[in-house]
């Protein structure tokens, strides 16, 4: 989707509710003046996700990938097919010494993000880092602090922040369309082993790094990270408590990360976000269900549903009642005993059409815009930080089998959090 | 097959019967609108269903009339 088309699809030209719900869209405010500028970027670790991002950058006339770094030759070869002129590095530190590079896109395995991002900021580069940010909340915090210290642009790969369906949903939520938010149910169900083919056994841990604790926290950092952020975005609040459980129940194939997890995040007012991920059943797919007292939103489907909708015409209600009187028999009780099965409510599309894109192209385009204009869009680094911090807190709760609270020392001055001052 | 003749009187009776059924169906619709507190515009928007109900009433009333006609004929034959 083109940027202008995207802004048009939201029906926006600086609406106040939209500016409050998704302030980072200001990244596109200079779009008319940046047409002739080009951001010189490099990518570190262009695996499958990295090349997915590059496929969008390739279509962006304002972006130029001038360098890449990887230790795995097949990834280098594939990336050179997209950008044959890019200079190849085997060591990211040598790449960071290249003064021509303005910004780096970090799409390496999770355990390497921290050092690369810190070094990139120190080298004066703007940074786009794939989620999750790091292996610990402390490291995420240090990365955020480094961004603040250097004043360089910092984006995290939370593409839902730029997904038109989510943006519209949040605009409606902030306008009170769905009433008071009373609960969240987020889930991601898959039915596959999450493995990638490995050319030789010694590369197993490097290629399937998501399955090993040394490199990743598994489902919490790779999937939940996207979805938990939707809860705090909608609530305008960071949940402060979390409890959870994880286990390997199906894929007993020497993986170390859980294939079956569940977490409950609790907001200060008692509203809960229930998160579940199972990778041996895909029937329900993925969704974040946002439950208000007036309606429900399912942004992944791109739909919303009101609790009370227009009743059937009176004439049909009358016929229906006659029919019920004639043929129905509830000999012992009235309707209060009838089971409360789910409503058959087909809902409405949030943006008047079936969902087309997930926001990734707009997110990476926004990063390019920010690099050109040298302006950090409001709240985007904070949203990225808390998305990672919350999923890591959930992971810690699962490991500890305890209720954990958000550590005061890692709070930012953001939403309901206040930075700890010593 | 022999020709059948529909008299003007019969036509008039059937048209009046159908109009009566249509009026009755509209009264039922009006009652439903008031009872279920739905918008008055349903007097027009639900005309399709009202028409179906009219046909139902007319067919039902016609069956009753046929049954009554044959029952009466049987009764008068036995009397003779």
Polypeptide structure, described:
The complex is a heterodimer of chains A (422) and B (80). Chain A has 422 residues and is α/β, with parallel strands linked by helices. Chain A has a domain at 3-161 and 359-385: NAD(P)-binding Rossmann-like Domain (Rossmann fold), CATH 3.40.50.720. Chain A contains 13 helices and 15 strands. In chain A, helix 10 packs across helix 13. Chain A starts with a helix and ends in a 17-residue tail after the last strand. The mean pLDDT of chain A is 91. With 80 residues, chain B is mostly helical. Chain B has one domain. In chain B, helix 1 crosses helix 3. The mean pLDDT of chain B is 93.
Count of DSSP E strands of chain B? 0
Pattern of helices and strands of chain B? HHH
The tally of helices of chain B reads 3
Largest sheet of chain A: 9 strands, mixed
* Mean pLDDT over all positions of chain A: 91
How much helical structure, as a percent, in the residues of chain B? Answer: over 70%
What's the SSE blueprint?
The complex is a heterodimer of chains A (422) and B (80).
Chain A: H1 3-9, H2 16-21, E1 39-44, H3 48-57, E2 63-69, H4 73-82, E3 87-89, H5 92-96, E4 103-106, H6 110-122, E5 126-129, H7 137-150, E6 154-156, H8 164-174, E7 181-189, H9 204-207, H10 219-235, E8 241-247, E9 260-266, E10 272-278, E11 286-292, E12 295-298, E13 303-306, H11 314-327, E14 348-349, H12 360-373, H13 380-400, E15 404-405
Parallel strand pairs in A: 1-2, 1-4, 2-3, 4-5, 5-6, 7-10
Antiparallel strand pairs in A: 7-11, 8-9, 8-15, 9-10, 11-12, 12-13, 13-14
Chain B: H1 8-35, H2 42-45, H3 47-79
Helix pairs in contact in B: 1-3
């Amino acid at each position: 989707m083109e940027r202008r088309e995207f802004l048009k699809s939201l029906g926006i030209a600086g609406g106040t509710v939209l500016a409050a719900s998704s302030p980072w869209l200001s990244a596109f405010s200079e779009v008319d003046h940046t047409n002739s500028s080009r951001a010189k970027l490099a990518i570190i670790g262009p695996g499958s996700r990295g090349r997915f991002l590059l496929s969008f950058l390739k279509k962006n006339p304002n972006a130029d990938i001038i360098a890449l770094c990887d230790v795995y030759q097949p990834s280098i070869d594939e990336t050179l097919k997209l950008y044959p002129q890019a200079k190849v590095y085997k060591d990211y530190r040598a790449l960071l010494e290249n003064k021509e590079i303005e910004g780096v896109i970090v799409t390496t395995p999770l355990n390497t993000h921290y050092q690369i991002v810190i070094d990139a900021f120190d080298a004066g580069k703007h940074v786009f880092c794939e989620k999750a940010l790091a292996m610990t909340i402390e490291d995420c915090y240090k990365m955020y602090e480094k961004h603040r210290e250097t004043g360089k642009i910092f984006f995290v790969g939370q593409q839902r922040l730029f997904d038109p369906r989510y943006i519209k949903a949040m605009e409606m939520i902030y306008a009170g369309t769905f009433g008071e938010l009373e609960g969240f149910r987020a889930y991601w169900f898959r039915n596959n082993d999450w493995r990638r083919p490995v050319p030789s056994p010694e590369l197993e841990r490097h290629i399937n790094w998501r399955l090993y604790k040394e490199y990743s926290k598994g489902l919490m950092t790779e999937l939940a990270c996207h979805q938990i952020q939707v809860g705090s975005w909608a609530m305008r609040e960071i949940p402060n408590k979390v409890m959870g459980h994880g286990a390997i129940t199906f894929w007993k194939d020497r993986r170390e990360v859980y294939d079956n997890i569940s977490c409950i995040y609790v907001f200060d007012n008692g509203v809960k976000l229930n998160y579940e991920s199972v990778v041996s059943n895909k029937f329900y797919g993925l969704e974040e269900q946002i439950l208000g007292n007036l309606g429900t939103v399912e942004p992944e489907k791109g739909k919303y549903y009101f609790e009370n909708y227009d009743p059937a015409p009176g004439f049909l209600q009358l016929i229906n009642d006659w029919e019920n009187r004639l043929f129905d028999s509830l000999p012992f009780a009235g309707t209060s005993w009838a089971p409360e099965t789910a409503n058959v409510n087909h809902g409405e599309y949030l943006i008047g059409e079936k969902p087309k894109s997930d926001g990734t192209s707009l997110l990476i385009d926004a990063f390019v815009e920010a690099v050109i204009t040298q302006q950090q869009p409001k709240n985007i680094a904070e949203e990225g930080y808390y998305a990672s911090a919350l999923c890591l807190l959930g992971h810690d709760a699962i490991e500890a089998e305890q209720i954990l609270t958000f550590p005061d020392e890692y709070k930012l001055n953001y939403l309901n959090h206040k930075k700890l001052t010593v | 097959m022999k020709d059948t003749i529909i008299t003007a009187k019969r036509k008039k009776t059937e048209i009046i019967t159908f109009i009566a059924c249509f009026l009755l169906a509209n009264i039922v619709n009006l009652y439903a609108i008031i009872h279920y507190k739905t918008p008055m515009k349903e007097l027009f928007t639900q005309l399709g269903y009202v028409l179906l109900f009219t046909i139902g009433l007319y067919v039902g009333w016609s069956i009753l009339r046929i049954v009554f006609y044959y029952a009466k004929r049987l009764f008068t034959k036995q009397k003779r």
